[in-house]
Amino acid sequence: MGFFDAVYQVVKKIPYGRVMSYGQIATILGNPRMARQVGWALHVNPEPDAIPCYRVVNKDGRVSKAFAFGGENVQKQLLLAEGITFDEKGCVKPCFFVKKNI
Question: Which of 4, 1, 36 is nearest to 22 (CA)?
Fold first, then answer.
């Protein structure tokens, strides 16, 4: 299995109402310095209906300005629809991050 496919398998396991960071996913895959590559994989997500890439945010909990499927506002709306809330700085609150490996 290639790196992108491994990313997609992890992202599919992110529970409804939770998020992970690019770095968390890279670490799970044994490559903690490959967070940017995780982002590239999600940018070319081949199955946006099956791979919930909108549940992936940066390490601070910020949504992507370059969200591939409609921009940062779309990503934020998708997260809000799952009950995820943001702090006053526009970051996902820490309680919504997956705390363990999935």
Answer: 36
